[in-house]
Amino acid sequence: MALTSGNLPHAEIDSVARNDFNDAMAQLDAAFPLQTADIGNLQVTEAKIAALAVTAAKLAADAVETAKIKDLQVTAAKLATDAVETAKIKDLQVTAAKLAADAVETAKIKDANVTDEKLDKLDKGRFENALLHVQDQKDAGTAGGASEATTWNTRTLNTVLTNEISGASLASNQITLPAGTYMIVASAPANKVAYHKLKLYNVTDATDILIGTSEYTTDSTFVVTRSWVVGRFTLAAQKTLEIRHYTCASYALEGLGIATNAGVIEVYTDCQIWKI
């Protein structure tokens, strides 16, 4: 007797139907594998991914996009070792909001994919490069110069020790910087001028950028103190800058610093600027 649905128990019919359905779905999966475009935005959640299921082989080039990942859903447990490759991630698509705390472990990142370009994006190490360091250096025994009363004296800057900022330069006591955000640490001494302070001045736009610390030296005896300018600033375009020093009293030759005369150069104004 031929085996037909008419003489099969209902349970067996259901089993045959399920098997036929599963075979059909397997054939469809083989013929039409799941692509990035087949996944709705925000549909890949933590609950949908087995531990260590995401491997490099599972991800097409440029498959990982911000819109495909729910915030905080990428955890260490979801990433197989060496799963994260440069080619698998679209530029600028991995944001802080997408990564759960401690999601990125050393073992999850291929060695070859930690490049200098990627390290430059890290917040740390900003003071390890992109430095402009300039000073006022004079021969041994040469004083810092005369101060003028109630005047913003332009401090001498005549020596470049380090210049790692493309487009930065020093000429005629003036610093030229390209557009960008910077951190400055600068100081200069004063002697017998009473009250004094520094500032970072924008010559191009005739405006003050940062005001330094208020200091005092007396105006009758040899007492040297330094004023400091410390802070962050941003330039929208290339600008020319100066370090200017207000002195309350005038003092010839040594108002802007006394020489140590120790057989080495004298250093007066010191200015370090980092591009950050």
Account of the protein in words:
The chain has 276 residues and is mainly beta. The chain has 2 domains: 39-119, no CATH class; 127-275, Jelly Rolls. The chain contains 2 helices and 12 strands. The chain has helices spanning 10-31, 116-119; strands at residues 131-138, 151-154, 159-163, 169-171, 174-177, 180-191, 195-202, 207-211, 215-216, 224-235, 239-247, 266-275. Strands 2, 4, 5, 7, 8, 9 and 11 form a 7-stranded antiparallel sheet that branches. A hairpin with a 2-residue loop joins strand 4 and strand 5 (174-177). It is rod-shaped and about 115 Å long. The N and C termini lie far apart (86 Å).
